[in-house]
Amino acid sequence: MPSSSKARKPDISLSNCGYSKVLDIISNKWTALVIYAMENGKIRYGEVLRRVEGISKKMLTQTVRKLERDGLVQRHITPTVPPSVEYSLTPLGETLLQPMKELRQWGRVNYDQVVESRASYDSAYATDSRGADSMNEI
Amino acid sequence: MPSSSKARKPDISLSNCGYSKVLDIISNKWTALVIYAMENGKIRYGEVLRRVEGISKKMLTQTVRKLERDGLVQRHITPTVPPSVEYSLTPLGETLLQPMKELRQWGRVNYDQVVESRASYDSAYATDSRGADSMNEI
DNA sequence: CGGAATCCTCTCTGATACTG
DNA sequence: CAGTATCAGAGAGGATTCCG
Fold first, then answer.
1. Which intervals hold domain HTH hxlR-type (chains A, B) (predicted)?
2. CA of A65: which chain B residue's CA is closest?
């Protein structure tokens, strides 16, 4: 066996990392919010549009299509007039809900610390190129 | 409380969602991989560069700076010649490691199903010969 | 060794308007 | 109601070069 003290080859890569694969699925701006809108069962397109603040029809459609393609969401079409389309999580989609909730929980608990850290970092590395001591804004 | 049968106001928004906040931190392409490089303790800049396959110096610096600003990573400078810089997770960063691992685990277990789903979706909706999709694996 | 600065491309996202 | 189509802007990411 090589007992060389160095010689380490790359062992962390995008293609072998499960986390990166998940990011490929849920790192979009709206994906998580849309999934949350479905966590209590079937919900109509327009209802999601109303419940998820700020999302546009274009982005909702795009998000929901991708989730459907990935097998996380199902589409139920009722060909009435006007048409009614409902969405719900697939069993696979439900399994994703759990780890997502844990990450969400982390955010709820710790995000304030992150915000604080950013503030102190920014004041330490004072982007302020001239005011050497205090903040002489305006 | 209003017992009206409808009238639901948006209750899912980017600003109140802990998950979206976390995405703000770790949804970048390299962030997770860089964090994984540090999960066993202090590691030098160049060592991260070698271990994380495909990352450039620019992206590593950018990623690590953001993590430092967010309070998830610490920088240890040893002013030798040439300089030596080591990085490690902060206690806050370590707490993030856990939920990330669960998501990574989900990816390891379920990503194949997602890939399958994509394939069947694409063949079902086969828009002429437009397979100009994303090829991830090699 | 560990960056910073520059340039450039490509994807994501948003606004707007039209349709079955 | 549930989309589609089109255009435009912002920013993430990459390649290259230079520096203490």
1. 17-115
2. B121
pTM greater than 0.85 (yes/no): yes
DSSP string, A6-67: ------B-GGG-HHHHHHHHH-STTHHHHHHHTTTS-EEHHHHHHHBTT--HHHHHHHHHHH
Residues of A in contact with B69 (CB under 8 A): 117-118, 121-122
Q: How does residue A54 score in pLDDT terms, banded at 50, 70 and 90?
A: very high
Contact yes or no for B86/B44 (Cβ under 8 A): yes
Name every chain B residue with its beta carbon within 8 A of the beta carbon of A35: none
Domains delineated in chain B: 19-125 (1.10.10.10)
B52 neighbors B60 (Cβ within 8 angstroms) = yes
